[in-house]
Amino acid sequence: MMLTKEQGQAVTAYLISKKLPMDLLLEVKDHFIEQIENTENTDFETAFGAAKLSWEKELRMVYKFNLPLRKVTVFQRNTDRKISFAIKRTILYFVPFFLLSVFLCYFRKDWAQNLFLFSYIVIGLVTLLSFVLFYKYYKSSTTNDKRNISIYQKGTLIYFLSGMYVVVFNLINFYDRFEKFNISLLMLTNGHLGKVSYIPLIYTYIFMFFWMYGLLYFLQYRKAVTELEQRINLKL
């Protein structure tokens, strides 16, 4: 059985009531339509009801324990957990940089300084270029845009904000900040824990880490938006 336009709209309206992001909504809708169209010798309402029943557990609304506290489907919650790939891949990319930078701080301080400076400049320039070329993605990831576009939408904001923080907290007054970081690192590794200033240590790495993390979300968000533009003529 092939669905009519009105029947397709009925499926969409049902899934909208489940407050799914647009990218997940289209994914689930494809499954619904496939199930309904592959059901033989029955009418639409019966086939639609069977599809709802088969997805009942996945589309049950549960609380997602983050801020702000809100209800999402079990399907979305489970999908959110699966995209923890971002944190794993970020660690995979970040750890070699971290180890190299610590090694250089001990044996070639000037090289370590240049490594950080180069990294911060690249992050700042790439983020600035992203603002210029992809401002609509930044705008749609903020709280001002109420549309629930994608599961990658809010993670994209981390990319833009972390890039700005790298410029403000790492690149501005870089040489003084690096000197404080280097002194704190040496004191830490030499066991002078009570005299260590931990803020320079944290600030040196944390915004870079979250920039990498947010970048993975941003790339996936662009991919999701491109598909939505093609399928439903989404306008950011």
Summarize this entry quickly:
With 236 residues, the chain is mostly helical. It is built from 10 helices and 2 strands; from the N terminus they run H-H-H-E-E-H-H-H-H-H-H-H.
What attributes characterize this protein structure?
236 residues, mainly alpha, two-stranded antiparallel sheet, 10 helices, 2 strands, 73% helix, 3% strand
Percent in strands = under 5%
The SS-based structural class is: mainly alpha
Strand count: 2
Largest sheet: 2 strands, antiparallel
Describe the strand arrangement of the main beta sheet, using strand numbers. Answer: 1-2
Describe, in plain words, how this protein is organized in 3D.
- The protein is mainly alpha-helical and 236 residues long.
- Helices cover 73% and strands 3% of the residues.
- It contains 10 helices and 2 strands.
- It has a two-stranded antiparallel ribbon with strand order 1-2.
- Strand 1 and strand 2 form a beta hairpin.
- Helix 6 crosses helix 9.
- It is elongated and about 75 Å long.
- The mean pLDDT is 92.
